[in-house]
Amino acid sequence: MRFLATADLHLSDKNDLPLLERILGCAQKQNCDALLIGGDLMNSPFPTPETESGMIALLSAWGKPIFIVAGNHDPLAVTALYQKFPSNVTVFPEGMTAYTLDENFRLYGYSALREQSKRRPLENFSVPADEIALLLGHSHFEGTDFQPVRPEELAASGLKLAILGHIHKGEQRLIGATRLLVPGIPEGRGWDETGEKFVYTVDISPDGAVVIEPHSVAERLYRQVRVDLTDCADTNEMLSRMENFQPEANTEIRLILTGTPLENPDIAARLYTEKYGREVINETEPALSMEMLMKQNTLQGHFVRKAMEDITKASPEEKPALEDALKLGLRALKEARL
To answer: Listing from the earlier edge strand, what are the strands of the sheet with 251-258?
Structure first.
């Protein structure tokens, strides 16, 4: 069988519905037999009527089985929309429940009743040794904040695969003989959710072998770019380095300035933001001024004094090359100390 696994869509209004549509489109394109959603389909138990009707129409149009667990943002006790979903959608109850997918596989799952819960859904849980079983849940793995799942519980469960929503950063691990898939959020929503995001096809063979592949459905990507301004001597040089990084389509970038520029980068950062409308974070360390370097009784101080003497005496045509030589020399001395 082949499934598409995702979680934490956090649909808030009609503007988020295209994300669900792209996920269903991916499931269709990949010839999936079912869609598994590991909680927090909605960001709130109370979506607008327009969002409700759009979600119902999309889920119904796909037609194939969809299995959903309720998360802490859309818990069972207060999310009335679950009662309106079409017949191809199964929402798990609070207690651990199993559905037979075909003669080979069983899908276990549990929903969150309330927005806060410390219960351990896998405590004392295990499946029959001859059963090929999967799990769909919404839990904090190795944490304690929401329906915690402990590694030793997962290792002792006998599950072939556990799909757990709640944590927005995706990951895969092998815990004992159980594969763990945390899908993470399928599309970043801000600077706390940077980097590529995915949904996952899951192929399970009759002998229990599991193959997981990522697929991108995101139309928005947040990316932080670190720009080293070490030895930049003026605003134009710093701005030039910052402008070397141009984002791909549908990518928002935020620059993080690093290194030790020879001049304060605040003006360059302001000009960049005014020109491109992008945020810039200054994490540079102030470099010693030429005046301070010249006063040092060190090899570096001697080098700077000699170089500045040559620059002062040089013709306008010679100065650029000598200034470049000074910067290269300072960089070489710095690297030699590392």
So the answer is: 221-228, 251-258, 280-282
14 within 8 A of 48, measured Cβ to Cβ: yes
The secondary structure of residue 289, as a DSSP letter, is P
All domains of the chain, ordered by start, with CATH?
2-215 (3.60.21.10), 221-337 (no CATH)
Q: Report d(CA 215, CA 258) in Å as an integer.
A: 33
pLDDT, one tens digit per residue, over 46-98 is: 999 999 999 999 999 999 999 999 999 999 999 999 999 999 999 999 999 99
Q: Are strands 105-109 and 97-100 parallel, antiparallel or unpaired?
A: antiparallel
The DSSP bridge pattern shows strands 89-91 and 280-282 to be unpaired
pLDDT tier, 326 (very low <50, low <70, confident <90, very high otherwise) = confident
How many residues in the chain? 338
What sign does the CA torsion over 122, 114, 98, 107 have? negative
Q: Supply the DSSP symbol for 12.
A: -
Higher pLDDT, 337 or 196: 196
| Closest to 278 measured CA to CA, from 331, 224, 318 | 224
